[in-house]
From TrEMBL:
Pfam family, one: Glyoxalase
Top-rank taxon, per record: Bacteria
Domain VOC: 11-135
InterPro entries tied to this protein: Glyas_Bleomycin-R_OHBP_Dase, Glyas_Fos-R_dOase_dom, VOC_core
Signal peptide limits: none
Protein name: Glyoxalase-like domain protein
């Protein structure tokens, strides 16, 4: 499956999102949120795709009770669809303001979580509900095996 026996079997996670307003979504995620563009391709019939670098990727699997708890902490009520995308940023408050100014709908302002991060919830282009979060404790463990924190 891999060239090296110690290499992980999955090398990259790509979340593919269909955006009716491609230009607005690209402006939001690339220019406002600041995800660098790695590549872009066009095809017949005005087919377009941009691949944006979102840093390190993880796949977070949560049971319904955990999903409800995160919604309660971040928003105070149940609002998240089955898929929510979280982005770690260096300044959750400033990024939240910039994203709202750029057209995102604020679901809940930044709030300090029990797992010591500052999280804000937004409705973003392409039908995504997103969390922007800032880790407040630089010494906090980053491994799920060491810490049950979640974004």
């Amino acid at each position: 499956m891999t060239d090296r026996p110690d290499a992980p079997p999955v090398r990259q996670l790509r979340l593919v999102v269909e955006a009716e307003d491609y230009d607005a979504a690209l402006t939001f995620y690339r220019d406002l949120l600041g995800l660098p563009q790695e590549a872009a391709f066009t095809g017949e019939g005005d087919a377009r795709v941009a691949i944006l670098d979102a840093g390190r990727a993880t796949l977070e699997i949560a049971n319904p009770a955990q999903k409800r708890m995160i919604d309660d902490v971040e928003v105070g009520r149940q609002v998240a669809p089955p898929l929510r995308v979280a982005f770690e940023v260096s300044d959750a408050t400033a990024v939240t303001t910039a994203l709202v100014d750029g057209g995102a709908h604020l679901v809940a302002p930044p709030v300090r979580t029990p797992w010591n991060s500052l999280n804000a919830r937004l409705e973003a282009p392409a039908g995504l509900q997103i969390t922007v979060f800032q880790e407040l404790d630089a010494e906090a463990p980053r491994s799920p095996a060491d810490d049950d924190r979640t974004a």
